[in-house]
Amino acid sequence: MAKERTKKEKKVIGLGIALLVLFVLSVGVRLAIIQSSPFYNTYAYMIMPKSIETVFDEKDLTLYIEQNKDFDKTKNEPLEAYKVYYFEDNDASKKKVYLKNGTTLKGEKEESNLMVLQFLTSATITDNIIKNIIGKAIIVLCVLGVCYLIYLWYLNWCRREDKKKELNNQQ
Length: 171
Fold this sequence. Notes:
about 170 residues; four-stranded antiparallel sheet; alpha+beta; rod-shaped; two-stranded antiparallel sheet
């Protein structure tokens, strides 16, 4: 006959499952956002600002970024994973004007400027913050996991002591 679990046992089991799930998710996310990951370009795009303001040839210009759907990791350079564009006269109703190779602006005063690097720089700052938070969360979850295992050991020890007392009282 199976013994029914008490509320306390159910809470302890639920806590253990929650800690395990959080730990696995944290480690999974941390592994998914390393640069060699196939998901890295999508992740980088997610944390980039979607537009930046710049001045080019003495005009205010808003640049936008999107993922390059034709990007092939084996054939293209990493910066070609994204396309940078702007709208003529900063009017979103007009046609998108893509920068040369999706990355450079060429004008009268400047020869070229890698605009995608401005987006990537912002993404790198956010990436470092996210990685630090996840790293600290993993450490906290490890400490909580050790505390949980100690608590389980304590509950098991208490159960054994109660059985010993019960046996001694019966004799």
